[in-house]
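Ticket #4471: structure export looks truncated?
Reporter: QA, pipeline team
Priority: medium

Steps to reproduce: submit the single chain below to the structure queue and open the exported record.
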Amino acid sequence: MKAIGIIIQSLISLGILCGGIYGYFAMGEPEVAKRPPGRNGPPVVQTLSTATHEEDLRVEVDGVVVPFRQIEIASEVRGRVSSKSSSCRKGRVVQQGQLLIEIDPRDYQLDVQRLEEELKQAVAMIRELEIEIQNAENQKGLTEQQLEIDRRQLERNLQLSTTAAASQSELDAARRAELLTRNTLQGIQDSQNLLRQRLIRMVSGKDLVESNISKAKLALERTKIFSPVDGVIVEESVEQDGYVQAGVPVIVIQDNSRLDVTCKLQMRQMHWLWQAGSDPTTKGSEDAKDAQTSQSTVGADLDSFTPPLKNLSAFPRADAKIIFELDGKQYQWEGVVDRFDGAGIDSQTRLVPCRVHVDSPLEVSVVPAKSGEFEPVEQPPALMTGMFVKVQIRVRAPRPLVRIPQKAIQPGDRVWVVRDGALVSYPLERATVENGLVI
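Actual output as written to the record:
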C-alpha cells in the first residue's frame, strides 16, 4: 500500500511538470519592445512654464470651535433658593446683569437691621461721652478758679503769720482748703483722661459696627446672583427651594461674545509663520529678482536667502478665516491666530496646537460655493462650540516664491531645470499646494 501511494504522488508531480512545459510552448516567445524608427537620440522633454507667486500663502487646516471662556458662578452666601429665573436653564441665552437666582434674604436683612441699631447705640454713647467730657472741662475751669483763690488766701495767711496777725490754725485751714481744691482738680483731670480713652474705644466700636454693616449689606446683595456676561448657560445644579452652600458652583455660563477655534499646524507651516515677519537680505532680493526674469534660475533665490533667527517662543500672529460649509454655501468669520494651545508639541501627532481667536462671532459673511461672490446674510448658522470648521490662515510670504505645476514635481520634491543646455535635478522647498500648483 505504501508503494502504491508513492507511485501515485510521482505520477501527479510528473503531470504538473508536463502541464507547465506545454503551457510555456503554447504561449509562445515574448515580444521585445522595439524602439520606433528615428527615435534613437535623447528622450523628448516637455517643458512647463513657472510664474511668480505674489499673493499671500494660504494654510488650510481643520479646527473645532471652543469657548473663549467659561465662568463658574458660585453662591457667595448660603441659604434657601427663594426664586429662580425661567432663563436659568441649560441652553438658555442670558444677558449681562440679568437676575438668575435669588437666595432667601430675610436672615441677612435682619443682620443689617440689628447692626444698624447697634450703630445708633454706639453713636448715642459717643454723644454721652462727649457731653461728659465737656462737663468735666467746665468743672475743671471752675476748680482752677477756686484753686487760684485758695492759693492767694494761703499766701495772705503766710504773710500774716510772720507778724503774728494770723494764728496757726487759720494757716492750717488755708493750707487744707488749697490742698483739697488741688486734689479735686486732679480728680477732674483723671476723669477727663478716662472719658477720652472711652471715647476712643467707642469710636473704634462704631467703626467696627459700620464695617459689619457694610459686610452685612454686601451679603444681602449677594443673595441675588446676576449673569456677569452675555452668554449661554451650559450647566446649572440648583433648583428653587433647594439649599446652597457658600462657595459651591451653581451655574456655568459660556461667554459667547467671543470664541476660539483649536487647530493643529505642521512644523513646516509654523516655519512659514515664524518667518512671516522677516525680510530677505539685499543679496537675496536681487537674486530673487533675477529668478523672476529667468526660468533657468528658478532656485537661485532659495540658495542665497538665509532668514534671520527669531524667538521661537513668541507666537507669530496671523489673520485667518473660519469657514463652515452648509447647503452649498460657505459661512466665514474673521479671526486671528494669536497663541499656542498649550506649552509644546503634541507628543502623539507631532503637530503644534494653536488657537484662533474670533472677536466678533456675530459678524458673518456668506459665499456661494460655486460663484464665489458675496451675498447679503439673512439667517446664517451661528458659530457654536463643537462645530467642525476649516481654518484658512493667510501668511505674508517672507521671500519670493514661484508656482510650479504639480505634475512637474519629481519624487523627493525635486524638479528638472535646464542649465547650460542640460537637465539638472534641483531640490525645492515646498510651501503649500493650491489648485494643482506647488508653491
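Status: closed, not a bug. The export was complete when the record was re-opened. Leaving a note from the reviewer for reference: DSSP finds six helices and 21 strands in the chain.
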